[in-house]
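Translate sequence into structure tokens.
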Amino acid sequence: MSSFKVEEMTCSHCEKAIKTELSKGHQEVKVEVDLKNKIVTVENLPADRVIFLLKEIGYNAEKLK
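Result follows.
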């Protein structure tokens, strides 16, 4: 499981877009979004892939330690 800071994430539309993009075609991927703290947690998807996919839809993500 990896967590990412996504500063541009501000609303429920952002949350839905992120969840849809990261889980598209991957039933085993679990995505949790914390809008208040602007954190996305992803399970079963490599960190570099998460960052790439988020960038594709306009979000910059920074992996948290």
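Note: The first strand starts at residue 2 and ends at 5.
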